[in-house]
Amino acid sequence: MNIRIVENARELNTEVLVLGKFENENTSIDLVNRFVIEKDNFEGKLGQTYVIHTLGQMQADKILVVGLGKREEFNQNKMLQVVSKAVKKLNQIKAKRAAFDFGKEYGKSAIIGAMIADYAYDKYKSEKAHHLEEIYFSGISEGELNEGILFGEAMKFTRDLANTPAQIATPAKLAEIAQQIDGIETRIYDKPEIEQMGMGAYLAVGQGSANPPKFIHMKYYAQNPKKRIAIIGKGICFDSGGLDLKPASSMLTMKDDMSGAACVLGVMAAIAKLRPEVEVHGIIAACENMPSGSSYKPGDILTAKNGKTIEVDNTDAEGRLTLADALCYACDLGVDEVIDIATLTGACVVALGTITSGIMGNNKELISDLIQTADASGEKFWELPMFKEYFNSLKSDIADMKNTGARQGGAMAAGLFLKEFVTDSVKWAHIDIAGTAYLEKPQGEFIAGATGAGVRTLLNYIIK
Ligand code: BES
Ligand code: MN
Ligand code: ZN
Fold this sequence. Notes:
With 464 residues, the protein is an alpha/beta fold. Helices cover 34% and strands 22% of the residues.
């Protein structure tokens, strides 16, 4: 789908003209008002759509009217939603070209909404999805268009990667993708080097798999960086649970357990093009969690990079083990802020559902900054408490801690576990996207499958 700017969408000789209509208001076209509103009582509630044929009375063959809801409630997130609705409708009626006359505000959100809605994962389908060829917007600036497209492409990149079957998206594949990003310097550490770095927790998780682990460090350097940030993505390319094997129904979607990594890769690729004055490190401890004769076992004691010891209580709590070593590595870089993003706990899905990601950390300002940025980006983050009592169930008789404890409060316990591997002087936030990264059924502007959770928020946070 190409997106272009036109002077006047209304006068374009195109297949479909897309018009917005606020509730209890007329549109600027009489023909539409007479038929759609007066005759058919089209109200214009948020996301409602109505198609009319112009029968030669206008330049466009058809007009798609989209409800914008109440004028006073309209904002950038609603813009994203209504454009997304319109694009879905346009694809449904197999339109090829459409022009949007949606006003001058919220251009970036409009573009992102269009690109989210046009997404299909049909690489392995013989019959491909219908896509609009060209859409036009009037009133949008060149800058908004370019930024919107970069965000939209980053999300598509992340969604494609998280949707990719685990047979293809292996640790080596993630490493290869990282190395191919232009404008980013990437170092890959193989198993012997990971051993040398003392990453005993991460190594244990990967040791049962036929596909070796790859530790990925991407660097984006700025001339005069305002600050230095590391973003870490959980990169479990497949989570079978390990010897504490998951039941079939829970394992079904576990190719998505590298959604955090896919997010970091998408963000790094976009950062290289947006070129903000911020130093950004993208870190992924990629591996697979598999059961085999060489797997790590319940009861094993692991030593992380910072020397802390962990008794394995459950091999299915593997993400926090890989993140533990990645967090140590990131803190050792001497950055100001570390943000990790991970499909970490089923408990977070139970607590917040598939709508909201959980966020925790050691710095109020960073957390509230990220929550606000999420809100302005069309995503939802909600802070979960880091009361130290949640750590009680992780106490071990024979090591510094266990990797799991009580089932109750599991998202917070996982957060407190991670905190053990964060240097106190580094500002840190942890984002749990277990519920939001991958949908089993369509939701809002998203089809089932990967959503690109975190991409918009992290990008907006880094470039602001
Ligand atoms: N990758 C899962 C978490 C997850 C669950 C992601 C559902 C997406 C959807 C994680 O590695 C895991 O298995 N967590 C366990 C931890 C438990 C053993 C303490 C869980 O949440 O059940
Ligand atoms: Mn697991
Ligand atoms: Zn996992």
